[in-house]
Structure formats: C-alpha cells, structure tokens
Design goal:
By secondary structure, the chain is of the alpha/beta class. It has 13 helices and 14 strands.
C-alpha cells in the first residue's frame, strides 16, 4: 500500500491524458510541450561531443558538487541578471528540472499542516507537490491581470501562511501575466506578513507582445525564484535551477543531497558548453516567432469554432490559452467526445485547489503547427457542438 502522504496526491490528468493520445491522427492541445522540430539538436550534439572529448571527459562522468557545475551557474547567473534580477553563481542551486526545485522548497520549508497559498487556478504539479508535503492549500482568486492583491491580503491576514506559490508570467494554465503594480503589491504583502514567495518562471522568455517585466524576486528578498532550460532549450535535459535567499540555501542544499546527491554531471557540463558557444538569445527569438504565429492562429479561430458566450485569455506569451464555455457545461464530459473527433485538450477542473470551474479548459498551441492548429480547431468546434454545448 502507498503511504498516506502519497495516497492523498491525485495523478496528473495531463500526464494521464498524454498516454491516451499517442495515436498520430490525434491533434493534441493538451500537453504544454515545446515544439520538438525547433530543438537545436546540432548545437546540443556538438556540446555533448565537446565535453566528452579530451582530458576532461572522465571528470564530466564523475560525481559532482550538490550545488551544481560552477561554469553553468555562472552562465545562468549572467542571463538572469540581464533579465532584471541581479544574480551570482553562488545564489543558484542546479536542479533536475525546475519541478525538483519546487519539491526541494517544499521539503525544506513545509512541515505537515503548513499553509500554502496558490492563485486560482494554478499549475497542476505544484498542487501535487504541496499535497505530497502534507501542506494545507488555500486558494486566492485571480482575474485577467493575475492574482488579486486585495484578496491576497485578506488571505495572508486570516491564514498566516508559510508560502505563496505564483507563476506570474504567462501562467500555466491561464496564460495571464501579473502586471508591475500588482507585482509590487504582492512583494510588499510578502514582506509585511513574512511569507515566502515561490516565483516559478519557466515561460518568461517566451514573450510575443509587450515589454518584459522584471521578476517579482527583484522586488523582495523573500522570493525563491525557479528557472528552467526546458522551454527555451529542451525538456529532456531536465535542467533547472533555484535562486535562493542566503538564509535558505543550506536547507535546500541538504534537501537536494537527500534527493539525488546532484543533477546529472554530464548534462550540466554540456549545458555550460552550449551556453558558452551558442546564441541562445537568437534561438529564443526564433521560438517566439514560431510560437507567436501558432498563438495567433489559435486565437483567430476560437471565435469561429466556439459557441457564443465562450470566453478565453489572450496571452502575451507562453504556451496556453484558457477557455470558459457557456451554459454550465462540464468539459470533462466534452473531452471523450473530442477524443472521438481526434482532438484533445485538458479539462480545467483539476487546476483548482478550491471550488472548481468545470466549464473551463486549457489549450496549448506551442507544439502544433499552424496548419494542424487550424484542423484541430475545426475538430474542436465539431466536438463542442456534438457535446451539446450552447450559449
């Protein structure tokens, strides 16, 4: 039998759904996946070849420090600093994907019964992580501009939480972005109430419109910042990082030691080499050009295929569009109909920690070509109509 801690954690419906849609005829808007045809395969092949050649090759196959490859941390620190968050290599802990960073934060900071605040809706795997840590999860409302600071202040006053979890830039699942004024207010509230913020930022460089915003971590010393190469490099590398306030660093390092000693040495070395020689900024610009076209294709077709009364987000970047259908429909009941039409999405209810809104769904546009998006939107429209959804 599984432990009680694990028994209380629901399986991710996104991961479960991915196992059901491997048929090539299915057009999937379900998983938040980067486009594999845009991976820089040659650049990564060259980086691995370099670090596995010469005298240093054996060193890159050996055990390594828990904190991570110093050269890699230097590159990440420089890149993070250029994005408006002054960072040194020693501020960073390399993790096996940013998801592990979230798990380490939970292990280091949360005792069973601790209170964690999340915006509603929020990232599924974060809910899993906090549930497995035995935390009590409290939801705070959000709107088109992200988490509501007035509601957040009420929750902080009433609940006195240990942690606030946010994806403030192109959020998963909604695509929304927290504006500058709200970022300042959230940071001020965290400082006033002594709450740690986890700022999860896997999508921040994938901006297709508007000016970049500085991370929330630039506004408060109480922010733990998570970053990743998954969306701008390749997710198979499983390379992420945590930028930690000094006082939390020892606990996170111990949690990392207990988890896996250190992240793959060879992958870190290859990433350090890649960041030394490749023009990652140019690669990201290429991703943004491709993803912008895909987003625009999806947004342009939604009014044609969805019934009157449907509403959706209009993201400035990232990978997701959040849809609410009219008429009190449950999108979990629409999904089997959609699968029969060879198109897939993620029902919205599992993204809620509190009372779910079952008429919602998440669409991801990043891994699907504009041509396939057009056909997938047509199928989605037919499926919604077949499921009897009306204004």
């Amino acid at each position: 039998m599984p432990s009680q801690r694990l028994a209380n954690v629901a399986s991710s419906p996104v991961r479960d759904l991915l196992a059901l849609i491997e048929r090539p005829e299915v057009i999937s808007f379900a998983g938040g996946l980067p486009a594999p045809e845009l991976f820089d395969v040659e650049g990564w092949r060259a980086a691995f070849d370099t670090v596995l050649s010469g005298a240093g090759a054996r060193r890159h196959l050996q055990y390594a420090p828990t904190e991570g490859d110093l050269r890699l941390r230097g590159h990440i620190a420089a890149r993070t600093t250029r994005r408006g968050l002054p960072t040194r290599a020693e501020d960073l802990l390399v993790t096996t994907g940013s998801q592990q960073g979230l798990t380490l934060v939970a292990a280091a900071l949360l005792d069973p019964g601790a209170t964690v605040v999340v915006e509603e809706p929020t990232y599924l795997a974060a809910l899993q992580c906090f549930s497995m840590a035995g935390a009590r999860i409290v939801a705070v409302p959000s709107d088109e501009q992200g988490v509501d600071p007035a509601a957040l202040a009420e929750v902080f006053e009433r609940e006195r939480p240990e942690l606030l979890y946010l994806v403030p830039t192109f959020a998963n699942p909604t695509g929304r972005t927290l504006g500058r004024a709200r970022r300042e207010r959230v940071a001020e509230l965290a400082d006033r109430y002594g709450v740690w913020i986890v700022e999860d930022d896997p999508y921040g460089e994938l901006r297709y419109r508007g000016a970049a915003l500085e991370p929330v971590a630039s506004l408060s010393e109480r922010v733990i910042y998570l970053g990743s190469l998954s969306k701008i490099g390749a997710p198979g590398l499983r390379l992420g990082w945590v930028r930690t306030p000094r006082e939390l660093r020892p606990a996170l390092v111990v949690a990392k030691q207990a988890a896996d000693l250190h992240t793959s040495t060879i992958d870190q070395a290859a990433a350090a080499e890649y960041l030394s020689v490749a023009d990652l900024d140019a690669h990201v610009r290429g991703l943004c050009t491709a993803y912008r076209e895909r987003r625009d294709t999806m947004l342009g077709l939604l009014p044609r295929v969805l019934p009157d009364g449907a509403v959706w987000s209009d993201p400035d970047g990232g990978m997701f569009v959040w849809v609410t259908l009219p008429g009190g429909v449950d999108t979990a009941r629409v999904l089997p109909v959609a699968l029969r039409h060879d198109v897939a999405f993620v029902p919205g209810a599992p993204f809620f920690a509190g009372r779910a809104e079952p008429a919602t769904l998440r669409l991801s546009f990043s891994s699907t070509s504009p041509e396939r998006i057009s056909e997938g939107m047509r199928r989605l429209g037919e499926a919604v109509l077949s499921a009897g959804v009306a204004a």
